[in-house]
Design brief:
315 residues; alpha/beta; Rossmann fold; Alpha-Beta Plaits; 3 domains; 4-stranded antiparallel β-sheet; 11 helices
Length: 315
């Protein structure tokens, strides 16, 4: 089966005339990325990591400086490749004097839908994003969350094989976030391939099978979510009473809280040694519990390892 997205050595260098200094900034450096058909890939990274540049390259909004990209085996420069893509930008700016229904209808018509099929599909996606009641209202009267929903409707209307979502839950309340998550899962079950960029890491962890972490324009970690989490050392949290400050020195543990009760975090493999040393100093163990590692832990550790780079100036 042809991959939904495949990039090899994909790179982008921007030319910046900084006070005539002609600086060149590497926004993306040799990206190798694959999204199998029907999979959800979550992309994480700090601001300036190269996420938006990657999306623009896949949409043929900008051209690569090096490397290549394919969408279902076709380069993004081909209209037939882009016809398979639905896109929700981070800050959607639909035509505000159109109603929600008119805007989604326009998107459907531009995608080739006509007549009764077009009207039926527009009604379907408006219901899917729960905007049927506001379909006749001009977009300029929408809240940010409502605009986000109508923009998602236009991304879905042509039943894309690849859905690119850039911060899809931005500006949404808890119910709105839950709705978006349900839609993403529904599209995944339908067989849609999804590239999901989000700063809300719990959403990425809940929805994605695979994750790619970009830092400074480079791919620093990638793989199934479960595999990335298993690569981290398991930890344990220990709570003691009667533990002196002198005993804390030399322990292979981080001190999270001091006072009458002392809370320590240590590698699971070192927990027994820490407990024995503390009990030997007449401290009382109140509780011990394993710490479930999250995707956020993996992300923060990756940022720390890379020094949180944002692009790189090469000239």
């Amino acid at each position: 089966m042809v991959n939904a997205v495949e990039t090899r050595g994909l790179g982008k260098v921007y030319q910046l005339d900084v006070l005539k200094g002609r600086k060149r900034v590497v926004a993306l450096d040799g990206l190798d990325l694959t999204i199998p058909a029907g999979h959800v890939l979550g992309v994480l990274g700090p601001n300036g990591a190269g996420k938006s540049t990657t999306i623009k390259l896949l949409l043929n909004l900008i051209r690569p400086t090096s490397g290549s990209a394919l969408i279902f085996g076709r380069p993004p420069s081909e209209a037939e490749a882009r016809r398979d893509v639905g896109y929700l930008p981070e800050n959607p700016a639909p035509y505000e004097y159109l109603s929600g229904a008119e805007f989604v209808t326009l998107a459907a018509q531009l995608s080739g839908l006509k007549g009764a099929e077009c009207r039926r599909r527009v009604d379907e996606v408006l219901g899917q994003v729960q905007m049927t009641s506001f379909a006749g209202v001009q977009i300029r009267r929408y809240s940010k969350g409502m605009t986000q929903r109508i923009a998602l409707a236009q991304a879905l209307v042509a039943r894309p094989r690849l859905l690119i979502l850039d911060e899809p839950t931005s500006g949404l309340d808890v119910l709105g976030r839950q709705l978006i998550r349900e839609i993403v899962l529904s599209e995944k079950q339908r067989g849609t391939s999804i590239l999901l960029c989000s700063h809300i890491i719990p959403d990425v962890e809940a929805l994605s099978e695979d994750v790619a972490i970009l830092v400074g324009g480079k791919l620093v970690r990638a793989g199934p979510v479960s595999e990335l989490l298993s690569q981290q050392d398991a930890e344990a949290e220990l709570v003691f009473e009667g533990l002196s400050h002198e005993t804390l020195d030399g322990l292979r543990a981080r001190v999270l809280q001091t006072g009458r009760r002392v809370v320590l975090r240590c590698p699971a493999a070192a927990a027994q040694d820490v407990i024995l040393r503390c009990l030997g100093q007449k401290a009382t163990l109140i509780s011990m519990q394993p710490i479930r590692l999250t995707l956020e832990d993996t992300f923060l550790e990756a940022l720390k390892a890379q020094g949180q780079k944002v692009g790189s100036v090469i000239e």
